[in-house]
Amino acid sequence: MTDRAADDRLARMAPVLAALAYPALVWAGPAISPLFLASALVVPAVGIAGVYRASPSWPLARSAALLTVAAPPLYSWLGGLLDFQKTIHIGSLGVWYGLWTVLLLLAWGERAQPRRSLKPRPSRLAFAHGCSAAVISLFAIAHLVNHVSAAWGGGDGHIAMMTALRSAYRAAPAEAVLLTSVAFQAVSGLCLLRPHAERERSWWTAAQMSSGAYLAVFFLSHLTAALRARWLRGVDTNWRWLTADSMLTDPWSARLAPYYFLAVVAFGVHAGLGLRYVLRARGWPPAHADMAGLVPPAVATVTSFVIMAALFWA
Length: 314
Known about the structure:
This protein is mainly α.
């Protein structure tokens, strides 16, 4: 094997190696210092770099990199699913290390695939994807405003606003539309992934694909956690449920800090880059469309910092 081939193989394996380290980085927060929780953000960053580097000739490497970006929600989903049950004798850590060890071996042995002919973008599906995103965004913006209110009104202010909002989005028809939109968003996003990725290799594309992967796993984790709490345990999924254990000091809840922070950022990134694509398609100058596409991520990042500050000091 040449040095170049070895370097390329190591680069393709880097996201998987980073994901294997993710639980230890999360554990370091409560065990050593809350500042160490920030180090967990390195893992999704390595995943985004892997998405950018991986060409369509290496589909497994690209898929593993996308899954690495989604490490925070995947780790939280496995924890909620496995760590509090007694049916099978395995926890989230056992599954986590088993999954990523298998992916590491597969990435090591992957061979380049022949390039396929480019297929036209499914424009109707892309339009429907955007429509479902608009429905989700209406709920998400209201949901985030509700969380931001806790920075000024505390938990009681958050619950008061949430109670008012629930009269709309907890109605059966609204919940059905929202859940259907989330499911369609995830499935249609997977269908749009290949034709989108094979045409442009840029950080814009890597960020759009990565944020979409993160949100797909986040919705899986967040919705199943909330619905299990509501339907199986009869728990009111309000501010008190969210802040029952400190994300800075509780060993299990520490995983929720990067999980929630990046979810808001990913929402802004995906929305902004979707807007950028639409504006370019409508003839906007590329520089203007690029600038417009950066506004939602910037707003989302600031919003996420405000929400996390309210959660940490609740």
